[in-house]
Please model this.
Amino acid sequence: MSWAELLLELAIIFLLALALPLVLRLERSLAAVRRDRAALESSAGNLTEATRLAEAASIRLRAAAEGGGRQLAERLAAAEPMRDDLRYLVERAEALADRLEALVRTARPLAQEAPPDPVPEAGRSQAERALLRALRAGR
Model:
């Protein structure tokens, strides 16, 4: 063997000795990457499952909201005629109350001047008795 071959082999041994710690560090890094890759793949699987569940829940929520909206619309449609009827009844009741109030005002002075009523209390209806009591209390 010549000196050149020996020198070349020593240079290769030296370079291999320098590369060995780098190779060991690279091997540890690759092992960590493999572990992280497995964790990442399982996380991706969990994320896919969570996404699927969220989509299913949003579909159920949308269906429930549409069903609730339909029920609300049906109830509103059924309540609208009742609202109109109640409005009509309130208007009539207000008009009757105004008329009754005017009659009571007109009757008060007459009730004070009028002689006692010949019809006994027992022969009157409950509404008549209540009206007479109210008129007498207003004197």
Remarks:
- The longest helix spans residues 3-113.
- The chain has two helices and no strands.
